[in-house]
Amino acid sequence: MRIDLHTHSTASDGTDTPAELVRNAAAAGLDVVALTDHDSTRGHAEAIAALPASLTLVTGAELSCRVDGIGLHMLAYLFDPAEPDLASEIELVRDDRVPRARGMVAKLRELGVPIEWDQVARIAGDGSVGRPHIASALVELGVVETVSDAFTSNWIANDGRCYVDKHELDPFDAIRLVKAAGGVTVFAHPGADRRGHTVPESVLAELAAAGLDGIEVDHMDHDAPTRARLRVLAADLGLLTTGSSDYHGSRKTVRLGESTTDPEIYGEITRRSTGAFPVPGAGGSPRP
Questions:
Q1: Helices and strands in the chain, H and E counts
Q2: d(CA 16, CA 125)
Q3: pTM of the predicted model, to two decimals?
Q4: How far apart are CA 27 and CA 100, in angstroms?
Q5: pLDDT in tens, 183-199
Q6: Are 46 and 20 in contact (CB under 8 A)?
Q7: What CA–CA distance (Å, rounded) separates 225 from 228?
Q8: Cβ–Cβ < 8 Å for 255, 28
Q9: β-pair type (70-77, 32-35)
Q10: CA–CA separation, 176 vs 84, rounded Å?
Q11: CA-CA distance, 149 to 164, in Å (whole number)?
Q12: Burial 194-219, CB ≥16 within 10 A → b, else e
């Protein structure tokens, strides 16, 4: 089985619609794909309706969190999206994305970048606006060559000149809320230090003690030594290890299935979930 547990659609900052994403995942030879848009579950229904017979969909989201001033992302899988406490927090985070993005546009303009809010809004479309949309605007303007080049201290990285905070979950609260909604939590790309400061291992140990299920190890932003270190750490803390593409369509160069998750790990994730279940192909419904 080929299993990719981290992808994005136009419901957040990807360039594939949810329907296009599942069709492209099947064409890429995947057996299982997770749709994990940023602070949003809005793409799930469209993805389920378009699901090819050969593909299973894992519903999820990537939750924006912050601890001790450091931003991090928490992948949440197979939770009940109607659970009110979690749904309310996701809505708060999503709603704060627009004023936050406007603030970054204002900072860029103060530096002389001729970026306009209308440009960012056009790129975001109906998606949950985020930094990749601003990065794409900077590419259009010729300020940077690639989306990744915008995620530096010069521009919109976590410690960048034009970074603006938004409402974000405490990761311990995120774990508690996702668990209460029957879901499973995996810390996304914990060693991606090119994006900014990363959470120290001591905090990761505290998250594990609080019920974190796993960490994403095989990811494009982790080099070989980082992956090896994270595997040892996961083993010490009793955490699952996943691999994923973090696919964003044409916004990034990474391909669907570029990194994958071991089928046994995937099986354990599905065994731990009670809020929702993987959706079989051909527009199937989650089993009750």
A1: 11, 7
A2: 12
A3: 0.88
A4: 36
A5: 999 999 999 887 778 99
A6: no
A7: 5
A8: yes
A9: unpaired
A10: 13
A11: 18
A12: ebbebbeeebbeebbeeebbbbbbbb
Question: Looking at residue 280, what DSSP letter applies?
Answer: P
Is residue 261 within 8 A of residue 255, CB to CB? The reply is no
β-pairing, 70-77 vs 56-67, is antiparallel
Tokens of 37: 């848009």
> What strands lie across the sheet with 32-35, from one edge to the other?
3-7, 32-35, 56-67, 70-77, 184-187, 214-218, 240-243
What tokens appear for 90 in the block?
Answer: 């996701």
**Terminal CA-CA length for the chain:** 24
- Alpha-carbon span 286 to 281, nearest angstrom: 10
pLDDT digits (tens, 9 = 90+) for 218-236: 999 999 999 999 999 999 9
Q: Which residue has the tokens 């291992």?
A: 201
CA distance 195 to 155: 11
